[in-house]
Amino acid sequence: MTQMIIDTANHLAGYAAKMAKVKVVAAYPITPQTTVVEKIAEFVESGQMDAEYIRVESEHSAMVACIAAAATGVRTFTATSAHGLALMHEALHWAAGSRLPVVMAVVNRAMGAPWSIWSDFSDSLSQRDTGWIQFYCADNQEVFDTVIQAYKLCEDEKVFLPAMVCLEGFILSHTYMPVRIPGQKEIDGFLPAYKSGWILDVNRPLSHANLVSPEWYMEFRYMIQEAMENAKKLIPKIDKEYGERFGSEYGGLVEKYKCEDADLILVTMGTMGSDAKIAVDGLRKDGLKVGSARVRVFRPFPVEEIAKLAENAQMFATIDRHISFGMEGFLATELKASTFNQKDAPMFAGFIAGLGGRDVTSETIEKIAKKSLKWMGTGKAEKETVWVDLRE
Amino acid sequence: MDGHREGRKRNRVGGLEGVKRMVTIKELPKEEYLLKGHAACAGCGPSIALRLLFKALGNSVILAVPACCTTVIQGQYPYTSAAVPLQNILFESTAAAASGIVAALHQRKLEGITVVGWAGDGGTVDIGIQALSGAAERETDFIYICYDNEAYGNTGMQRSGATPYGAWTTTTPSGKRERKKDMPLIMAAHRIPYVATACPSYPIDFVNKLRKAKDIKGTKYIHILAPCPTGWRYDASKTVELGRLAAQTGLWALYEIEYGKFQLNSPSDRLVDKAKRKPVKEYLQLQGRFRNVTDDDVNRIQQWVDEDWERYRKMASNSASDSALYGKI
Hints:
The structure holds two protein chains of two kinds. Chain A is 41% helix and 19% strand. Chain A has helices at 9-19, 34-45, 59-71, 82-97, 122-125, 140-154, 184-190, 214-246, 272-285, 303-312, 330-339, 362-378; strands at 3-8, 24-26, 52-54, 76-80, 103-108, 133-136, 163-168, 176-181, 207-208, 254-257, 264-268, 290-295, 297-299, 315-320, 347-352, 385-387. In chain A, strand 6 (133-136), helix 6 and strand 7 form a beta-alpha-beta unit. In chain A, helix 1 crosses helix 2, helix 3 packs parallel to helix 4 and helix 10 crosses helix 11. In chain B, helix 9 (203-214) links the parallel strand 5 (194-198) and strand 6. Classes of the chains: A alpha/beta, B alpha/beta.
């Protein structure tokens, strides 16, 4: 039976792990992730969640313990942020290479130095090439729903890859919102029992991940790429099925808002997607044809959907809560790559905003849209990358 | 605290009396779980130890192996020389992997499977010490074995924290100037129920220690001195002899610390008297890695060995106070 609760995104990630019937949680505390694992500790110690909670001595060990537990045949969960995620980096590759369906909540936080505890995507986007599926959520409901959906996706035999469910620190992690929680039976009906591609089994011994010569290594990498392509097809299906059962649907890979007739499409990730919708409504009142496309899944990247959006739009403006130093925001790069082979590809401008937790409001986004529309009118973007609200 | 202590006692299935002790080598099982065709060097000490490990524990075992010589020894995909499930895992994370396996087995209510972390000295005393310390502090129920060839062997013999004073390695070409880290006593300081040292030159002792460890609940740590002809620069036929000399000179003492009680094992239990120990020079001079040690160095090493033995003597003669120091009971 569906229940309505008011809680933070971090707690909801914990609720989702409980309702997914996770059996092993291995985690290490870091701000702003802490309340995820505190909630889980509470669930485990009160007997509401039948799981082992390994209180490891580092994030590196957290990820390795999850890998090994997943390899031993149980559903696993962990959560981290920023430097914790960076410390896991080596193990992230190992999880994906081992084709194990570990699911992790990444509570996005900016990377130091200097220290920052506030949000941007520099932590998770730095892990772009590890072979993890990456979801980015816009609100607390989506955090809960996506954790459940991630297990269904990752444990599909066409995928068998790990996934991170990213949510912005403080903006979502510690913010209370009303959320619908389906009943346990309903979740069980959606999410089958744990499945992995292989298992450490004394009755069927195998050596896993032993040395592979150049003769075979490339094939293992190609299989991961294939799995990513399969995930791209499955995500919209899972999103739709979840929506039919529980009422919330997110447009699969990209949440599109008033894009059909839009001249300018604002491309964002995470909570900026919610503000972009408000900005679009405001701009539409002034008769400006603006739409919003929130990239919900960054890996696999929705190349085809972006290309399709490019057919009708005159201009894309990306807003990146991230900077790849020496280049531009990742979203900008991926967007251009997705439309490169297209005839009459739209004009493009990239905006860097909200680093280290700086607020990005709907007004900020309206400003970005107006600047983009001005450039669209002249047919030339004055700058390809604009740092928004930068102190000069 | 008392309840915890009681629990520990109840969990003590094995102990000296409880386990069937092997007396002769003929009692070793015939089954081989380290299969033929493995890729170890001729005379490899660690591979002898690995074969004995499987014989001692049987095949109801899951092994976690980090980057180490065993990465090579097991063979390349699609082949393996291990007839038990083996999880290759990151260099610094053997004990973390074991923690995950133990937790999952517990959740699945699978009993009678021994989880073993099998790592080299670099993977234990250097890069892996954090994960190992964490797993021990969490009282993770597994056996951790450090097979110590006193350098990073797999990468071509670079210095590790377990390399002894005076030894040549590729990163200490004129000989290491610092002493070997005393890892077994670091583990004993975690107050885990079982710490032991061993050497494949004493297979019966090693097998008995493994069997005892298997029946104790909690973290068990066994540190094996595993001679390495390739890195130590001696003739491959002399691996067993080298291990024996290490024990006979007292450079490597065979002992166990069971619930805090320290006990020397044969042949080390007969070597407390300095006169019974061979001079360390006999061990050093057989190995090319010690070619550059001076007489002063030899004297220094001899003095350190003698000091260590004074410590062992005190620990053995006063196991009650040792219990208070190292054990929870």
